[in-house]
Design a protein that fits this description.
With 179 residues, the chain is mostly helical. It has 6 helices and no strands. The longest helix has 34 residues, at 145-178. The termini are far apart.
């Protein structure tokens, strides 16, 4: 059998190696800073940062409703109903922190009845709106063109009036706080 060579002791890293590693880190940081500066410098004057580009829940909902209205004529009934319902539910979930997407229509309406201080438009319009959506989704009811227009109109009213009510509540709270 061949004998194994004995293991050498620890290898000491010299001062020069440590200085070289430190210099490498400094150069890497310098290059990273230069890259970030170049990207920021080359930005177009009109470009916005991600935070500046965020839209309000109202703006998002209204854009989606406009897009749906443009596409509504060629859509099948069920995808149309799912989208119009999702637009309203997404808006309410974002603007009011109501878990609208995870709830059935019945659960959602029950929550509307149990919460206080909600905009009147929700009590007035949402039951009929959700019933119409459910009839198409689950009972496979045919959706006439006039019904599509009415659902789009109702969705727009719910979103706009809810947003107005929330804006008024926020302004009132600010006035009370400043008084």
């Amino acid at each position: 059998m061949e004998a194994f060579a004995d293991i050498d002791g620890p290898v000491r890293i010299g001062l020069m190696a440590l200085l070289g590693l430190a210099a490498l880190i400094v150069v890497a940081l310098f290059l990273l800073i230069a890259l970030v500066r170049r990207v920021l410098k080359n930005r177009k004057p009109g470009s916005r940062t991600v935070l500046e580009n965020q839209q309000s829940p109202l703006e998002i909902a209204m854009e989606r409703l406009d897009r749906l209205q443009a596409e509504a004529e060629g859509m099948e009934a069920e995808p149309f109903i799912v989208e119009v319902s999702d637009i309203v539910r997404d808006y309410l979930e974002t603007a009011m922190r109501i878990p609208a997407k995870e709830q059935t229509s019945e659960e959602f309406l029950h929550e509307l009845h149990t919460r206080s201080g909600l905009p009147d438009v929700l009590q007035a319009r949402m039951p009929r709106f959700l019933d119409q959506c459910d009839l198409v989704k689950f009972a496979r009811q045919v959706l006439a063109e006039t019904q599509r227009e009415l659902l789009l109109e109702t969705a727009g009213i719910v979103v706009r009036e809810t947003d107005n009510a929330l804006s008024n509540d926020t302004e009132t709270e600010r006035e009370v706080a400043s008084a």
